Structure formats: structure tokens, C-alpha cells
Amino acid sequence: MKILAHISNRRLREKLKSPGLKASLVGAILVTISATSALVYVPWALISKRNVDTIVTQANEEIVLGTSQEVRRLFNSAKVANQFLQNSVSYQLIDFDDSNEREDFFLSLLKANPNFSWVQFGYPSGDFFGAQRLAQGELKTHFRDWDEATQSSQATIKSYRSDAEGKESLIHRKTLALEPPFYAPERPWYQSAIAQPGQMSWTVYLYHSTQSPGMDVSVTVDASDQQAGVVGVGIELSQLSGFLTKLQDSLAGEVFILNGNQEILAATDSTDAWPPTKSAQLTRLAEAENPLLRHAHAAITQAGKQIAPGERLRYTDPDTGEVFFIALNPLEDLDWMVGTVIPADHFLAEIQQSRRQLLLVISLFILITAGLAVFLSDHVIAKPILKVTSAAADIEAETFKPESLSGLSKRQDELGQLARVFSHMAQEIYVREKRLKKQVKELRIEIDEVKRQKQVTEIVESDFFQDLTAKANNLRQRSRNRRS
Questions:
Q1: pTM for the complete prediction?
Q2: Is the pLDDT of residue 338 over 80?
């Protein structure tokens, strides 16, 4: 009994350790589906990532090239306007002594170029005349009269407003003494042009009227074989930043212009484009407050070399893991560069959404397939096999009934064949078992008879029985003798 109990307990433990039939079937199906899904998704994800990197690089390159072309076009417009000014003075196309003609000419030139902040002319005597566009679009003219005797200057400022037909009308005029005095030859744009007679020069400095930084392209002008002064076209850095903002449109990134010292001349984020103090000190890229511009500086620093014009950089933020694409493109005739820094998510948003949708579809597919697998394995495979298993247990318990497999036996598939074979086998086992029990019973009877005869023989042949038999014979003999 102990041996049978041990065997029964061992079988029970093995049954508990081994997974059920339904669990095994569902697990096998799920593993197959998951592996198939992984074989589809993983190569797609890897290939799409590589293709996206290529597309992003090309898109970023197109953006920086397009921005560079627009900035070059703006600068070329400034140079063309400057050349036109130079020719107008040199060939006396206008009478600069006629204030009205001079004002009309400068205002017309400023209106024709909406991105210009200044059109100006400086006299060797110290006088200055210029037309200015304010950030709000208002136009002004400035005439600054230098008095050599008193070393002072007086300014006459006129404000103009455009009517419905685009004609400028004077709305305000004022005259005031300038403190500190304004002397044209001392201005940076004037000195830069004088240092290179006849050649256009670019200068970044602090504008006198607005105390905001700007850049000018200026050139000396000769008339009647003598220097007549310096003409210049100026663009405030705030307006240049506004120009970049218009070009940026819906781009989720930053566009900026750097000079050769990696100082920010303009940026779509005006916080870093305009100096925080009243000085001509520009913000360096390394000191930018905008996080995207800091990423651009980190990428350039991480490269650890002199960045070649047109080079494309990829930077990963070590804290957040975000990826950024940086591109730099040079501007002709200047040591300036137009740069862009764009988060990868700007390009990858739709792709990542598609990837999430694909993962969702795969997950739903696996869940639905798992449900179908459970249902099918339970009704098509597991239950029929469990019926056969139950029948086997009934045979062991001697309670098997052939009709328990009658429904399953009607199926024409392998399980139906298994049920029919099992029913036939069960009937044969039943007949054989019945026959075996009868034979065992008969054998027991024969064994009992043999045992009985053996026991009788053993008793008869024993010394005690022999002695008892001899005594019985003696007693019978004595009894006969007495009778006779």
C-alpha cells in the first residue's frame, strides 16, 4: 500500500508541474504569432529608422539651404541698393541739396525694400541724412546737422504715414539737440567704409537712434573726383530675426545666423538675438538661453573639430535622450553662417504615430488571436481529447460507458477516428478483463483445491497423524477382541 501511495503522489506532482493541454496549445499559438509579428515589425522598424534618418538629413539640408538663399537674397538686395545709392550720388542722379527730392528718394528706396531698417548717407563734414523704418512699419527721416565750431549736432526728425494709395504724408516734425553729439565720420559703418575705399564692408554695431544692434553694408562715394561721403543700407538685428521668423513658418526648431566668432547676429528666438544691455556686445552661441541653441553649441563642441561649411550634425541630449539635427551653411563673401537646429520629433511625429498604431494593431491582433486560440483549442481540440482522457479514467475505475464517446465518434476527423478506435479498444479491454476475471476466479478455485489437498496430505503424512492412526487401529483391535 505504501508503494502504491508513493507512485500516486509522484504522478500527482508531475501532473501539477506539467502545463495543461489548453495552456500548451494557446502558448504555442501565441509564441508563433508573436514571433511572426516580431519578424514583420523589427525589420520594418530598423529600415524605417534608417530611411527616416536619411529623409531628416535631406529635409534639414533643404531647410538650411533655403534659408541661406533667402538671407543671401536679402543681403544682395542691401548690396544692390547700396550700389544704387552710390551711383545716384556719384552721377548726381538726384540733387542732394534739395531736401524734398532727397527725402522722396530715400523713402522710396526704403519702401521698395521692406526688410531694410536704414538707408543713409554720411557727409565728410559730419552731417548725416537717413530714412528709417521702425518695427511698427512707421517711416522717419533724420537730418543731423553737425556744427564744427560748437562741436554739437542738431537733429530734424520727420515722421510719415502711408495713405490708402501708398503715398507718404508728413504727420510729425521735431527738432532737438543730440546728446551726445552725432558726428557721421565717427560712426562704425562710416569708418569701416573709409578703411576700404570703394569696397563694400559689413559692420555690426549699436544704432544711435534706437540703441539696438544692427548691421550695415556701406561704401565710399566719390563725386567730381573727390570723396563725397559714405552711403549705407542698414538692417536691425531685430528685423533680421523677424525675417528669419517669417522664413521659419511652422518649423518646430530654431534658425540663427552666426558670425565668425560664433556670436548670434539673428535668431528666431529674439531673446538671444538682441543683447540684454545697451551695448554692441552680441550673445555668444555658448551663452544662449534658448535650449535648442544650446543643443546646437553642444553638438558643435561634441564634434571636437572645426565645423566645415555645410556639415550636418546629429546630437542626442544625454539627460532626456531627445535627438536633434543641426545644419550650418556659409554665406558668400562673409564669414557668417546660417544654422538650423530641429528636434527629430518634428520629423518623426507622424512616423512614431504610425509605429504606435502598428504596435496597437499587432497587440489587438495577438489578443484576438489568443481569444480565438483559447476558444478553438477548448472546443475543437481540448474538450474532445479531455473526453477521451476521461474515458480512460473511467476504464481504470471500471465505470466506462461506451455511449460517453458516441458523439465524438461521429466526427470524421482524426479525433473522431481516435474516439472510435478508443471505444473499440475499450470494449475489447472490457471483454478481456471480464474473461480475465473469470479465469482468475477459476484459477483461484483450483488453487484453493490444490491447497486443500496439500494440507490434507501434509496432515495425513505427519507423525502425529500416523501415531494417532496407529492408536485408533489398536483401539479398534482391542474392541474386536473383547467382543469375541
A1: 0.59
A2: yes
